[in-house]
Design a protein that fits this description.
two-stranded antiparallel sheet; 2 domains; mainly alpha; 69% helix
Length: 118
């Protein structure tokens, strides 16, 4: 026969987990976190989208498209701007890489001419 103490402890833990979540509060601003989430989630903030674009480029566009705060017209224009910016950065990076390769090839030729390369 199971121990009554174990059964009672199991029932108490089960009721605690099924209870409603506690109301947490933000001590700095004096509002509950549930109220903050109703006003707007941090994922939907403009600052979060800007940071995501700077960090991940066009991979941040789903954050924009799932954000209800922006109109469809704004989403299209911002998406085009991010894609154009990404294309420009790719082209500039390709040009810089090509210039670096040319510089290293020239340095190698100079070393070969002077007899340093092996």
């Amino acid at each position: 026969m199971p121990d009554q103490h174990l059964i009672r402890g199991f029932k108490q833990r089960a009721t605690r987990k099924s209870a409603l979540p506690r109301q947490r509060s933000c001590y700095r601003y004096g509002v509950s976190t549930n109220q903050q989430s109703e006003n707007g989630r941090i994922v939907d903030s403009l600052w979060m989208f800007t940071a995501a674009v700077l960090a991940a480029g066009p991979f941040a566009l789903p954050l924009l498209w799932r954000n209800p705060r922006f109109s469809r017209k704004t989403k299209i224009w911002v998406s085009l701007a991010v894609l154009v910016l990404t294309a420009a950065l790719v082209l500039v990076s390709g040009g810089l890489l090509s210039g670096m390769v040319d510089t290293f090839q020239e340095a190698r030729r100079i070393q070969e001419y002077q007899g340093y390369a092996q």
